[in-house]
Design brief:
It comes from Fusarium mexicanum. With 1085 residues, the chain is α/β, with parallel strands linked by helices. The protein has 33 helices and 32 strands.
């Protein structure tokens, strides 16, 4: 038989070789090769999905290193025998358990065949070969977009691939409707569908549980075969058990499906070179002849391709999963990797969003896992690579693991630049172009120092049994190992160990400090976010919360009709704008869900310790620390916290200590029963408070006769909400109040109704955040200009009064007698104005009877008024407000044992609402003299926290152990407040919350001025109002914090750093001197 070369002239290339076509190289690996050849020192690799630590290097997992050590000590790594064709049986059993759980899986195992594979891609190849031979699918459905080899592997087997919609380029979100519509209309029996279990590659968008159930139902009904790709287990949520919920659901169906799974250990074990995986085939039948046949066919495929799988990676995985201690370490390793990816994702989003000028990047934080589908187009990607040496795939997919503290700013500045189509020269990358707001909001622009990178090995928790000075010395001595500048100030050696340690590190290196906050409401959540995004590098934060959930007031407030009485679009964090509020005044469940979303999307839950009640705090002067006594609660959903109340407390008590203590307990949850009304315990019906609403309440209301005490905000909201349910209701009112929607009235809808936003409006704001920002700013502007209406005898106050009177008379036109009773003689705003939607209309209902006057006592049958009228009722609802003395719920002992609880019970005094006299390193968020009546409290809380952040950073970076208000400062500030507030409507003759439920009490709760005035004061701290105690006792060493004479910016030189910021013109409108107009044009001097 002639050879192939016989017809070819000697020395010539055989013709068949010339017919071999070229094909397009794999984009990712081709670009990776280009990246290695790139000599630019600032190049960034965002291509391959391999985990990297913050220094940009591969990061072997501690669990893997320990497993390798054990195997090496057992000489197991030296074994070079073949494994069976199907692989290591013990390894496969552990791999099955990782997918389907540790419980009794005997029934499932009878339906399952598993073989070891060359990682996840090898498993997909095995599955493609098997299905193409035996199922012979009409087509394989893959997501659009998908991981490229999904298509290649099946098409090489002669199977057509089709795409189902998955990613919507317009919204940059999941297109689930398009997915199911396509499967319903085009999917055929015998088709295969590729489904990624979690952390979808490349989009980072996953189906939720309800959507998975829909897919399972379609597959069952239409006979479509599911092929699962499980490459990133653990990277979506940080919990490998949660990530495989779809697999366990499909395996547990009442009518079983046949499906298969490709499993990879490359990513979640960091075994990229070991190529370790498994292929699992699960049938819908326990028929004993099927599984052996399937196994034999899989063995045949493997034997003809690579004979047997490698053993090293499988031994590592087997060692880890088979040892409880190592598995626990591995779970922690996976959680840490996932958490870091989430932090980088959030930092990228915040950096891109900081200016508010470029595209909307919220889709980035709605994705998860290793990758982000940025939405950048191929032209932008090409420019990033060619002009800025940032490498990513043409689809815009980036590997989040490639981002770190050195390159993050470099990347997001240029992405933002491309989106804005700005041709900015390199000198534009500096801190000077950012506003102060952007510097604070942006994790990588922390003026006056860049993001500080703690050295590897120094991330363990500090030993807080040491003094702050000892801790600082230990810390700075460890930091020096990471610096590039050798040497120290030798004059300090032997004189002061801390000063000597400081002289080795850059100036403004933040020392580690521990911060404890109490309360996971708006204040506590905002603090957690500040730490998460890097505003306080080196801070170890714990937020103790007495309840079983976050949200503070909004976790506890559940009465019918409960809603925010200020506009929802003002009542939110500036860093988490929500265009999807359903109504102008958001209902309580939506606000509670907003908290949950903020915590989840910004990865904040690790900071909160729920069901923990702080019962005492004490400053230890000699150690310069706060010592807190904490009791665990029994896990009840809401635990009451009031002086002397032990609700929910257990005997499990412990001590925790910190450098800085922040009281964020708020005030709208320390509720009170009707004051000075005896007989409450004698009432034989049901009595409850609106702030402590029972979970089961309908039986006490429906068809019953009810009394409602109070006409403050909660009383006004609850009445119309329960009116239809009651048989009759007595509304007890002792003083009139104003019903008005003055806050943002022109946005609320006709006549102040609670406007319901359409889905189209919400979608428009979500798509165009700049429009949404304009809307929010317009509303805030309306709130801020409204402060004049709180000044007595102003035209604005007169207009507000006339508007409220007209509203009252119009809605009570059938009851002019009632209108006369309800019209106050005090100014609008003296009591907190409430929109009162439906309240006045409810008062004139035939079911409602208004009982005017003071209550004398509770009786066994109801309520007796002072004019001897008795309301006989089945249930009593007390809408009687909150205790606003500002006294802490638990003893707080400051300098010399001074108890703040006792002091503030008599006369609360604070400075800017955040600091108290004689309380070192202590803050209270919205204490006395806060803007309670000025508008949305959320923005005020954020501003308070920004002040706190600045104070803590000064403590960290300028060698201080503590700060305390100078004697007399709080008293002087309070004296000014009390004098100023006499000119406001709050001082007019009404009984109000602002005076702690009294008529003539002092206005200690309110800020003496506008919100803008307070924000301005908080933005520029007067450090001179505090006494600062240095960690170096020797006064000659007061400037030891100047450190090694360099700034961290000089030493770190992060990408994009500008060391010539001082050359930039202070006036951006500055124009160069024109030579011809200059005195020097003629050469004269």
């Amino acid at each position: 038989m002639p050879s192939l070369e016989d017809s070819t002239p000697k020395g010539a290339t055989p013709s068949w070789l010339k017919t071999i076509p070229n094909i397009v190289a794999d984009e990712i690996f081709s670009l990776a090769a280009d990246f290695r050849l790139d000599t630019n020192p600032q190049k960034v690799d965002l291509l391959i999905g391999a985990y990297r630590s913050d220094d940009g290097n591969p990061c072997p997992l501690p669990s893997v290193l320990e497993a390798e050590r054990r195997l090496l000590s057992q000489n197991d790594l030296g074994k070079h025998e073949y494994l069976p064709i199907e692989g290591d049986v013990a390894y496969l059993r552990l791999a099955q358990k990782l997918l389907f759980g540790q419980g009794d899986q005997s029934e499932l195992l009878q339906r399952m065949v598993s073989v070891q594979s060359i990682s996840g891609s090898g498993a997909i190849h095995i599955g493609a070969a098997f299905l193409s031979r035996f199922l012979k699918p009409g087509c394989v459905w893959v997501s659009d977009p998908t991981w490229g080899p999904h298509i290649i592997m099946f098409e090489r087997m002669g199977v057509e691939c089709k795409k189902y919609p998955y990613y919507d380029p317009a919204t940059r979100l999941l297109n689930f409707q398009g997915m199911i519509d396509t499967l319903e209309s085009q999917g055929q029996t015998g088709d295969v569908i590729m489904l990624q279990v979690c952390a979808h590659n490349p989009t980072g968008l996953d189906l939720n549980q309800e959507q998975w159930k829909v897919i399972a139902e379609i597959c069952q009904r239409k006979g479509i075969f599911p092929f699962f790709d499980n490459a990133y287990q653990g990277f979506a949520t940080g919990n490998p058990e949660k990530d495989v919920w779809p697999l366990r659901y499909f395996a547990s169906l009442e009518h079983p499906l046949t499906f298969c799974v490709a499993q990879s250990f490359s990513k979640n074990f960091g075994l990229y070179g070991q190529r370790t995986g498994a292929f699992h085939f699960i049938t819908n039948s326990k028929e004993t002849t099927i599984q052996p046949n399937v196994l034999q066919q899989l063995r045949f495929i493997i034997r003809t391709e690579y004979s047997t799988p490698p053993r090293t990676g499988c031994n590592i995985v087997k060692t880890i999963l088979g040892d409880p201690e190592l598995k626990s370490q591995w779970l922690s390793d996976v959680s840490s990797m996932s958490k870091r990816l989430g932090q980088v994702r959030l930092a990228l989003h915040d950096g891109l969003s900081a200016s508010g000028e470029s595209d909307d990047f919220d889709h980035i934080i709605k994705q998860n896992g290793m990758f982000s589908y940025t939405g950048l187009n191929p032209q932008q990607v090409l420019r990033l690579r060619n002009e800025y040496h940032v490498y990513l795939s043409s689809s815009g997919r980036i590997s989040m693991a490639g981002l770190n503290s050195k390159n993050l700013r470099y990347v997001y500045l240029f992405i933002e630049e491309l989106c804005l189509e700005i041709e900015a020269p390199p000198h534009w990358w500096n801190f000077a172009h950012l506003s102060e707001l952007q510097r604070i909001s942006c994790p990588e622009t922390l003026a006056p120092f860049p993001l500080f990178r703690y050295p590897v090995g120094n991330n363990e928790r500090m030993d807080y049994s040491l003094s702050p000075r000892a801790r600082a010395t230990k810390f700075f001595n460890e930091v020096v190992t990471s610096t590039t500048l050798p040497g120290a100030t030798e004059d300090y050696q032997g004189r002061n160990d801390l000063a000597y340690a400081l002289s080795k590190v850059p100036m403004l290196t933040p020392r580690k400090v521990k911060v404890i906050a109490v309360g996971a409401g708006f204040g506590g959540v905002d603090l957690a976010r500040a730490v998460r995004v890097g505003k306080l590098p080196g801070v170890d934060l714990t937020v103790y919360e007495k309840n079983a959930g976050i949200g503070g007031t909004w976790h506890e407030s559940r009465y019918p009709g409960c809603a925010c009485d200020v506009p929802a679009h003002s009542y939110q964090y500036t860093w988490a704008p929500n265009p999807h509020w359903s109504h102008f005044y958001a209902p309580a469940p939506e606000i509670k869900q907003y908290f949950e979303d903020c915590a989840d999307q910004h990865d904040l839950r690790s900071y909160f310790k729920l069901s923990h009640k702080v019962v005492e705090a004490k400053w230890i002067e000699e150690r310069q620390i706060w010592q807190l006594r904490i009791k665990k609660t029994d896990g009840r959903d809401v635990a009451i916290s009031s002086p002397g109340v032990t609700d929910g407390e257990t005997n499990d008590e412990f001590i925790d200590e910190c450098d800085v203590f922040i009281n964020a307990t708020g005030f709208f949850n320390n509720w009170k029963w009707p004051r000075n009304v005896p007989g409450r315990e004698t009432f034989q019906g049901t009595m409850f408070h609106t702030a402590n609403w029972p979970s089961v309440w309908e039986k006490d209301i429906e068809g019953k006769t009810v009394a409602l005490i109070g006409n403050g905000s909660s009383g006004i909201q609850v009445l119309p909400a329960i009116l239809d349910k009651v048989k009759k209701i007595y509304v007890h009112i002792r003083s009139p109040t104003w019903i008005t929607s003055r806050i943002g009235e022109k946005f609320a809808g006709p006549k102040g109704v609670n406007y319901k936003f359409t889905e189209e409006e919400q979608a428009e704001w979500a798509k165009h955040p700049e429009k949404y920002l304009d809307f929010r700013k317009s509303m805030e502007d309306d709130v801020n200009t409204r402060f004049k209406f709180f000044m007595d005898h102003t035209p604005e106050q007169k207009l507000a009064r006339q508007s409220a009177v007209d509203n009252l008379k119009a809605k009570l036109d059938s009851r002019p007698d009632l209108a006369k009773l309800l019209e106050p003689d005090f100014a609008v705003g003296c009591r907190r104005p409430t929109p009162g939607l439906g309240y006045l209309e409810a008062l004139v209902s035939s079911k409602c009877e208004v009982v005017w006057g003071d209550i004398a006592e509770f009786t066994p049958n109801g309520i007796l008024t002072k004019d001897a009228r008795e309301s006989k009722v089945d249930s009593i609802i007390c809408a009687t407000g909150f205790e606003l003395s500002y006294a802490p719920r638990f003893p707080i002992l400051g300098k010399d044992g001074l108890n703040l609880q006792e002091v503030w019970l008599k006369a609360p005094e604070s400075y800017l609402s955040v600091c108290a006299a004689d309380m070192p390193n202590y803050f209270t968020i919205l204490g006395p003299a806060s803007p309670l009546g000025h508008g949305s409290l959320v923005t005020s809380i954020e501003m308070c926290n920004r002040f706190i952040v600045r104070m803590i950073r000064k403590l960290q970076t300028q060698n201080y152990s503590s700060f305390t208000l100078r004697p007399g400062v709080a008293r002087a500030y309070q004296n000014h407040a009390l004098s100023y507030l006499k000119r406001t409507v709050w001082a007019s003759g009404c009984t109000s919350t602002y005076k702690n439920g009294t008529k003539d009490g002092e206005l200690r709760s309110l800020h003496p001025g506008s919100r803008i005035q307070l924000f301005t004061l908080l933005e520029d701290p007067r450090y001179e109002d505090f006494e600062w105690k240095s960690l170096c006792e020797d006064s000659d060493l007061a400037f030891a914090w100047l450190a090694n004479g360099f700034t961290a910016l000089e030493e770190e030189r992060p990408a994009g750093a500008d060391l010539t910021w001082f050359v930039d013109p202070a006036d951006r409108e500055a124009k160069p001197i024109q030579l011809e107009a200059s005195h020097y044009a003629n050469g004269s001097e």
